[in-house]
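Late entry, evening session. Most of the bench is empty. Finally got around to the prediction I had been postponing all week. Sequence below, unchanged from the version circulated by S.P.
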Amino acid sequence: MALFILGLVIFFGAHVFSAVRSREPGKDLKKKMGYGPFMGTYTFVSIIGFFLICVGFNETRGMGLVYSPPSWGKHVNFALMPPALILLVASQLPAGRIKKWAKHPMLVAVKLWALGHFFATGQLNAFLLFTAFLTFAVFDRIMVKRRGDTGPAPETPVKLWADIVSVVGGIVLYVAFVMYLHRVLIGVPVIMPG
């Protein structure tokens, strides 16, 4: 459990620092260090944290239930994951209608992902993981709003191809996770054999 908690602290520590750091001229560490060195350090620390989360999560399997998920919980998760993955893809593309509507599609995707998984599993390690991600996504949304970052500006031209790629890419990712990737990467099959 110690590795898992350490990973969460390192990963989210880096993300919280980035969310609250000063953006004022002369005080912004990102500008003081330079974009490359700042992002390199931020990425390096985040990767270390994420690696420890993965190792720790695996080591804490079977530590018990926080609650028993409802029988219909997995169906809720199945329903929330396609839009979450579509939004995830949209967050990495130029503005389409999806990105303009969501404003911060990555944060909405994380909220849907975490919320859906609360309904699907009540394991202690999963509960801690999804609580951490959901809490940070809510916190970061508050911080970006305070900074006046409302996502793509209203006058930003909409790219239809970005919406098409978001939907197709998100559905392809969803099918890949359901059929194969969730079992390989997380160690838990989405569809139980038999």
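Two things to note before I forget:
The chain has two domains: 1-60, 64-194.
The chain is about 70% helix and 0% strand.
Will write this up properly tomorrow.
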